[in-house]
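queue> pop job 88
queue> type: inverse folding (structure -> sequence)
queue> payload:
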């Protein structure tokens, strides 16, 4: 029997190359090029394949707020629970960067709103001051007192940033002013440490004690 050349054997094992590469699909996901991502998927590309940065197409699209691409990937079975190399979920990245429509796409697809042992979408939205996203996440059932990996709650993060409107939303949703971070600091303590006098006053009126 004639020996098969090594290169031909490798191609046989690996299968035919996709016309649309993962790199092209990744760029398409970041730039909102729905047709490129669709071509990659239609050609049999793995929907949750990891790129050189340890991110999926869904993570890349969510990070840059490409809602149509996110909706396509979720419809094709992308796993919203997969995390980036830095440990963030796709919806968390959308929330962090203020992409309300993209967050809405995840909520519509019943994506998890909590991220165990990490910052949730609500944490990021509160930390960055994205009031509309905080409101939407709370309305969708996000846990108001969920703990980040440092024990912080959304209320603590909003207090740190001085986001009074978000503090009001979280208090209305039942946020516990008595909780402490891993370092023993309450939301009031976070406000005081960052010179957020208006927030500190509001927390005191809600019953917080120095």
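queue> result:
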């Amino acid at each position: 029997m004639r020996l098969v050349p090594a290169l031909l054997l490798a191609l046989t094992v690996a299968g035919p190359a996709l016309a649309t590469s993962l790199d092209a699909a990744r760029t398409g996901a970041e730039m909102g090029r729905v047709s490129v991502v669709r071509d990659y998927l239609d050609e049999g590309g793995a929907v949750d394949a990891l790129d050189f940065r340890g991110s999926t197409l869904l993570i890349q699209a969510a990070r840059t707020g490409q809602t149509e691409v996110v909706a396509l990937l979720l419809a094709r079975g992308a796993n919203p629970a997969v995390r980036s190399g830095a440990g963030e979920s796709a919806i968390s990245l959308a929330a962090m960067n203020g992409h309300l429509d993209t967050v809405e796409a995840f909520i519509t697809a019943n994506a998890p709103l909590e991220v165990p042992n990490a910052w949730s979408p609500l944490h990021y939205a509160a930390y960055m001051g994205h009031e509309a996203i905080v409101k939407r996440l709370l309305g969708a059932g996000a846990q108001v007192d969920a703990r980040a990996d440092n024990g912080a709650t959304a209320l603590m993060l909003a207090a740190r940033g001085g986001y009074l409107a978000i503090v009001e939303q979280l208090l209305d949703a039942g946020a516990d002013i008595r909780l402490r971070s891993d370092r023993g600091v309450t939301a009031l303590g976070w406000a005081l440490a960052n010179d957020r006098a208006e927030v500190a006053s509001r927390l005191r009126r809600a019953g917080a004690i120095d």
